[in-house]
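Predict fold of Anti-sigma factor family protein; 247 aa.
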Amino acid sequence: MNRPAPDHEQHTEVGAYALGVLDAADAARFEEHLAGCPRCAAELDDLMGLTPLLADLKESAPGPEALAPRPDPALLDRLLAGVTATRRAQRTRRLCLVAAAAALIVAGPLVGAAVFSGEAPDHSGVSAAKQMYEDGEKIGVVDPATKVDATVSLQPKAWGTHVALRLSHVRGPLTCDLVAVGKDGERQTVTTWAVPPGGYGLEGNDKGGKWSKEPLYTHGGAALNRSDISRFEVRTLDGKLLATVKV
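Predicted 3D structure, encoded as tokens:
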């Protein structure tokens, strides 16, 4: 009778399960373990996201006539390196988001006002977003229907693409998001923001105060590589398309 594998052994079977080299009995045992183990579920999610490496591994694996197919050790090394890089990027991005949230909690409305302030100090959120905007590859459009002026600034990263946005000639109140659309149709939200009643980048608009004349600068990231992105869409959260920037 087959005895169940010890729990510590099942923790090490994530890679073998993802690569499909476990036999039916071991795979069934691992799936039972996976249902109650968040650690293995997270590791499996990381591995399954490395599609190009797994595709290479599939191509190099022996054919069905082999009695005990095993992946190439070099490809396993590449897979391990890929998982390490992915986790490092995810940790870095999570830390950045936590730091940004902490800044908003501590600084409150001052930081919020700085997002559209042309006179903000160097350490403010707008200065960082503007600098990131200046440093990237810029692609812009003025939508013929809405007249919204949107320019994205792109920087390739190990984890995907950093995206800064300059937005003007938009009236509020609105709640919006910037969506990256892949060439395969995949959609990923880059960032969200609120447009106050006075709007952003509206020359000659005195109703919203001096800030309404300034454009919005904001930034975020997409897991898509720069070469895999087809376009960016600026939308309201209720579905209205404000601008499309084709890249």
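The two ends are 60 Å apart (CA to CA).
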